[in-house]
Amino acid sequence: MRRLSKALSVIALVTAGAVTGPLGAATAAPGDILFADSFDTYNSGSWTQGAGWYNTDTSHVYYLPDNARVSGGALQITTRSHCTAEGEKPSMANATGTPCTGSQKRKYSTGRLQTRYPVTPRGVNYRIKFSALMPTNGKPGTRMALWARNTQQYCTDAGQVTYIGEFDGLEWYPDKGLNRGSSTSHMSCYTSDLSTKRHTFPSSFSAGSWYEWWIDRRGNSVYYYVRAGGAEPSFIGAHTCTSGPFNLSQAQCDAVLEDPVSVIINGNAFKGSAGPDDSSWFPNQTMLVDWVTVEQL
Question: What integer pLDDT is reported at residue 15 of this predicted model?
Fold first, then answer.
């Protein structure tokens, strides 16, 4: 039923010419599909792949193209462990779930896709939908995410307060429970330490089963939903930019929410005590994404 539903909805939209490029979306109207991908093949015209090290205060992971691949009609985002010699980067040749020995060091790789261009025109209301399945073998210290962000820099990158907007339809941390997810909005930043103003809602689902995760932008608010099979979507929560903890002015809200957004699908591995246990077996962990659509509301 999942494949039939996909064929009738996402593929029909693509073949009908409803998918737009970075400028074509500007003429869209409510109800129009601004972007869609059914992941029957990898479309390099729509996506860019993460490559190389991603290193932050909390994360240290290597993006490998082989960890973001399309196979069997779905996008596969895989997080792996590697045993590497001094100065050696993670590769498919040194990928192994076995703990490292001798002078080898364990490192981690994952995959990342981001749309090559923003998928929403400035100022429109929209709904982003992901059809995805989380693995049942998730290990603590990792994360899978389905999300969107606007074109602004993060405040810590810019060294000043910006109007960053990040909207996480699903962040899945196995250490919080294989059947627990979270949906988080980030809107602008605190002046004290330039960290994003954020709030998170928890959600429940079943790892190993297919769900839809929705992000709606409507006016000053962002709404999150999860949908199992053909059931009605379940409301997770909503954030309003003029309310706490954001407390933005209307002009600031507009700067965050009117800005176009791109879609991002990725894995992650944390570092230090928050990361995976380097001394234990680490299985490949693969998130499947069946399709993505962006609709103007």
Answer: 41
Handedness of CA 156, 246, 120, 42 (dihedral sign): positive
Tell me, rounded to whole angstroms, the distance of Cα 66 from its chain centroid: 18
Q: Per-residue confidence at 7, pLDDT binned at 50, 70, 90? A: very low
Condensed to tens digits (0 to 9), the pLDDT of residues 55-80 reads: 887 888 999 999 999 999 999 999 99
**How far, in Å, CA of 116 to CA of 131, rounded?**
20
Q: Are 290 and 77 spatial neighbours (Cβ–Cβ below 8 Å)?
A: no
Report whether 80 contacts 129 (CB < 8 A): no
Under 8 Å between Cβ of 168 and 187: no
Distance of CA 31 to the CA centre of its chain: 23
Peptide bond into 90 cis (omega under 30): no
Lowest mean per-residue pLDDT among 52-61, 190-199, 212-221: 52-61
Task: Give pTM, 2 decimals.
Answer: 0.92
* Number of other residues whose CB lies within 10 A of the CB of residue 208: 12
Beta strands in 241-296 (DSSP E): 261-269, 285-296
- 159: which 2 tokens? 């060294």
Residue 288's CB: how many other CB atoms inside 10 A? Answer: 18
- CATH topology for 2-296 is Jelly Rolls (2.60.120)
Q: How many residues does the chain have?
A: 297
Phi then psi dihedrals of residue 71, to 5 deg: -155, 140
Q: Write out the two tokens for 133.
A: 């399945």
